[in-house]
Specification:
Alpha-Beta Plaits, 24% strand, 11 helices, alpha/beta, five-stranded parallel beta sheet, Rossmann fold
Length: 394
């Protein structure tokens, strides 16, 4: 595709030079010339009132996807236990499916995982695809990719959702490349365009400073990974489903990797995604020693310690404890924000908390706008007093 100039029509107005985002046009001899860096984006064609700029580009047509049906959720499991994000995605899938009048399907892969179908059904799956094989007991990229690819080619789903976990972030790009579709990673919101029924996928960009909404109009399935803790798992008693057992022919020599053993890191801390109470600290904590106070508070309330991006960058807490647009999204019963100003990037990760308590010296801090209770004071005075009173049962 090329762009050229009909010199007899060009009047040298230079509107196209200002419109070109790549600087691919130049003014010479009272007319405009096209440089090699032109990408044929068409921006110049829209502003040329004389019709002097020409192109052999043809409008891209949206293919017919009427045969693409179903909202699929990859049900991640480890050792026969479903990841919470899988149930959260089923809740969102049900919401999307109601708008599209399509069914919700879950796909579970592993060894002896058919018993998980009951739980998936209870949380909204109308059809459960089950791929079982002893070689699928532990996650291996190529084996899982082949199974998902084959199912997509056979059943032709409209949407495929995965959790933005370690497994999902590894599997989703492989699958999207195999089936030649786009992938929006780390989404925080999903919705359906009411005009054309396309999935609108929202995710943070530029370090969380911008929220970008992406639509895939030219390929199917529409794929996205979603952060744990963003969506809500909704149990649906009485829901029924059909189970489809998929023949999983797995050959070890084709997988390419072999798991010799699994070393699990010992952690005393509660996972943020599972914590009912989270005590979080920000810049106002001051240093790593300040987080010892938060650990004391978390201990007496049986909670987990978290922090803002600043706390991670300063080395006060590990990166896996960060809450916010560039960290984790959480949904605890109680979120205690200590020394956190309440920047929008952090609030996006904790707004799904049921109750929020804020402790800050600045009464004008934005965190108080999203808090159920606020304490204006120095956390070095407030937190020890809270710990003392909780221990005394006051």
């Amino acid at each position: 595709m090329t762009v050229w100039v009909e010199e007899d029509l060009c009047n040298g107005c230079k509107r196209c030079l200002k419109a070109c985002p790549y600087g691919a046009l130049e003014y010479r001899h009272e007319t405009v010339g096209v440089l090699e860096r032109c990408t044929s984006c068409g921006a110049c064609l829209e502003v040329c009132r004389q019709g002097a700029l020409k192109s052999d580009m043809r409008p891209r047509t949206v293919p017919d996807f009427s045969d693409r049906k179903g909202i699929w959720v990859f049900a991640e499991q480890r050792n026969g236990k479903l990841a919470p994000v899988s149930l959260e995605l089923l809740g969102k899938a049900r919401e999307l499916a109601d708008k599209l009048n399509q069914e919700v399907c879950a796909l579970v892969i592993g060894d002896r995982v058919s018993s998980l179908a009951e739980t998936l059904t209870r949380y909204g799956a109308e059809t459960v695809f089950i791929a079982e094989h002893e070689a699928l007991k532990d996650y291996r990229t190529l084996a899982y990719t082949e199974i998902v690819e084959n199912l997509i080619n056979r059943y032709r789903p409209n949407i495929l959702l995965m959790g933005a976990t370690h497994m999902g972030r590894d599997l989703a790009p492989r699958v999207s490349r195999r089936v030649r579709v786009g992938l929006t990673a780390d989404c925080t919101e999903l919705s359906i365009d009411p005009d054309d029924g396309i999935l609108l996928q929202t995710r943070p960009a530029f370090g969380g400073n911008v929220m970008a909404t992406i639509a895939n109009r030219y390929s199917r399935p529409q794929m996205a990974t979603v952060r744990p803790g963003v969506m809500e798992a909704v149990e649906r008693p009485g829901n029924r489903s059909r189970q489809i057992v998929v023949e999983a022919s797995v050959e070890e020599q084709r997988i390419g990797t072999r798991i010799m053993g699994i070393v699990r890191e010992k952690r005393d801390a509660v996972e943020l995604s599972e914590a009912k109470v989270i005590v979080a600290g920000g810049r106002g904590v001051g240093d790593a020693c300040g987080f010892k106070l938060l650990e004391d508070l978390a201990e007496v309330v049986n909670g987990a310690v978290a922090g803002t991006r600043v706390a991670v960058e300063e080395g006060w807490i590990p990166a896996d404890r960060q809450v916010g647009q560039t960290g984790q999204s959480v949904r605890p019963e109680l979120y205690i924000a200590c020394g956190i100003s309440g920047a929008i990037q952090h609030r996006a990760g904790m707004l799904n908390s049921r109750f929020v308590i804020a402790i800050n010296k600045d009464p004008r801090a934005p965190i108080f706008q999203v808090s159920d209770w606020g304490i204006v004071g120095d956390l070095y005075d407030v937190v020890p007093e809270l710990v003392r009173q909780i221990k005394n049962g006051s």
